[in-house]
């Protein structure tokens, strides 16, 4: 699955993904990116780690996480207020594409990591519907 509904080819970003780069980026931008983006990225990360997730879904996930990791993307991350908007859009689109492979266990792992870093309030903020 090379493209999402917005014709963004995530496979070109897959080469930018590595586990170390993912954790470095998440830790570096966690506060400024917001709990919604971090939670969604963690959900994708843990889904990719699951043996139950098929290869096509992992390719989509790694592409989205590679886009998140890449410092220069459509809207550079350092721009206040909007810098992570494109990253969140890509992460949300990838999540929608692989939603059937996101198990309750994956969500639990993501919530636990978010709670460890930011407390229970971050989970409520990240998972509430707006």
Tell me the major beta sheet.
Answer: none
What is the CA-atom radius of gyration, in angstroms?
Answer: 13 Å
Kindly report how far apart the N and C termini lie: 29 Å
- The number of helical segments is 6
Range of helix content: 55-70%
Q: How many beta-strand elements?
A: 0
Helix and strand content put the structural class at: mainly alpha
Order of helices and strands: HHHHHH
Short synopsis of the structure:
The chain is mostly helical and 130 residues long.
Please, could you describe this protein's structure?
62% of the residues lie in helices and 0% in strands. It has 6 helices and no strands. α1 (19-33) runs antiparallel to α2, α2 (35-49) packs across α5 and α5 (104-118) crosses α6 (120-127). The longest helix is centred in the N-terminal third of the chain and has 15 residues, at 19-33. It starts with 18 loop residues before the first helix and ends with a helix. Residues 1-5 have low confidence and may be disordered.
């Amino acid at each position: 699955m090379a493209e999402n509904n917005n014709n963004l080819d995530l496979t070109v970003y897959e080469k930018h993904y590595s586990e170390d780069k993912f954790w470095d980026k998440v830790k570096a931008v966690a506060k400024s990116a917001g709990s919604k983006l971090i939670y969604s990225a963690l959900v994708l990360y843990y889904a990719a780690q699951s043996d139950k997730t098929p290869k096509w879904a992992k390719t989509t996930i790694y592409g989205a996480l590679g886009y998140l990791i890449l410092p220069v993307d459509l809207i550079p991350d350092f721009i206040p207020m909007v810098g992570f908007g494109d990253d969140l859009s890509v992460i949300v689109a990838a999540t929608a594409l692989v939603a059937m492979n996101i198990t309750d266990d994956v969500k639990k792992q993501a919530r636990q990591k978010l709670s460890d870093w930011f407390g229970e309030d971050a989970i409520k903020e990240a998972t509430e519907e707006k």
